């Protein structure tokens, strides 16, 4: 795949409750839009929730006219799995995003491990910190990296914050691939980022936001 200034990256923080997404321009390396996809609540059958989620993902990629010049990257599963059943459901969500992207001809080079985000962007290493502390640090870092999000009157959902950070790290890796003339799969595919190998839907509208320019 040959990248161009028109190439875009869609970064995904997958969840069966609320999937955050952030659309980046490869030319500016900045986010253009961001939002959340809300599948039906857990009171609905799982198959129905996944079906509705897929419809929303298909609509999103159609609205953005995603083609074979664009890229989609999801956050990978956590290194430590505390709830295997929940993890397997989220893995199905990842699969929906990635399958729909591939059916549109988009490149899905790999995933970003959440621990990599914590170590490379949040400056956290060693013992896993409490979730609340990690989320607070993530918002602080995102506000520094993307000052334009502070001009939003309404506080951005944490799912969007996470998608923005995933996108930032993915952009860095895409740039690295270009600088070293390496295939994208080489800078994404690693044991750390691809641990999915360890694994054997009333409906709320998507909360779309256009991020203001600096």
What does this structure look like?
- With 214 residues, the protein is an alpha/beta fold.
- It has a single domain (8-202), classed as Nucleotidyltransferase, domain 5, CATH 3.30.420.
- 41% of the residues lie in helices and 14% in strands.
- It contains 6 helices and 6 strands, in the order E-E-E-H-E-H-E-H-H-H-H-E.
- The protein has a 6-stranded mixed sheet with strand order 5-4-1-2-3-6.
- Helix 1 (46-63) runs parallel beside helix 2 (84-103) and helix 4 packs across helix 5.
- It is globular and about 45 Å long.
- The two termini are 31 Å apart.
Task: Give a quick rundown of the structure.
The chain is of the alpha/beta class. The protein has helices at 46-63, 84-103, 114-120, 131-145, 158-180, 184-188; strands spanning 8-13, 19-25, 31-37, 71-75, 111-112, 207-210.
Shape, please?
globular
Compressed to H and E, one letter per element, the order equals EEEHEHEHHHHE
User: Helix tally?
Assistant: 6
Oligomeric form:
single chain
CATH class annotation: Alpha Beta
Per CATH, the superfamily is Ribonuclease H-like superfamily/Ribonuclease H
Structural class: alpha/beta
What is the straight-line distance between the termini?
Answer: 31 Å
The residue-averaged pLDDT reads 86
Fraction of residues in H or I helices: 40-55%
Query: How much of the residues is beta strand, in percent?
Result: 5-15%
- Strand arrangement across the biggest beta sheet: 5-4-1-2-3-6
**Cα-based radius of gyration, to the nearest Å:** 16 Å
Low-confidence stretches: 191-205
């Amino acid at each position: 795949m040959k990248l161009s200034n028109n190439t875009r990256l869609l970064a995904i923080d997958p969840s069966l409750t609320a999937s955050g997404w952030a659309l980046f321009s490869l030319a500016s390396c900045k986010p253009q839009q961001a939002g959340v996809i809300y599948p039906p609540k857990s009171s609905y059958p799982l198959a129905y929730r996944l079906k509705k989620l897929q419809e929303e993902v298909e609509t999103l990629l159609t609205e953005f006219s995603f083609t074979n010049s664009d890229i989609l990257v999801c956050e990978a599963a956590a290194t430590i799995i505390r709830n295997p059943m929940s993890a397997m459901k989220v893995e199905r969500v990842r699969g929906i995003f990635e399958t729909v992207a591939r059916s549109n001809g988009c490149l899905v080079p790999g995933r970003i491990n959440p621990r990599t985000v914590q170590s490379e962007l949040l400056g956290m290493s060693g013992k896993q910190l409490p979730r609340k502390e990690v989320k607070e640090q993530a918002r602080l870092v995102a506000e520094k990296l993307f000052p334009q999000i502070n001009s939003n009157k309404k506080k951005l959902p944490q799912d969007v914050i996470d998608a923005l950070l995933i996108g930032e790290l993915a952009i860095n890796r895409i740039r690295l691939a270009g600088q070293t003339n390496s295939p994208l799969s080489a800078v994404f595919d690693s044991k750390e980022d691809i641990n999915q190998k360890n694994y054997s839907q009333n409906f709320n509208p998507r909360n779309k936001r256009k991020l203001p320019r600096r």
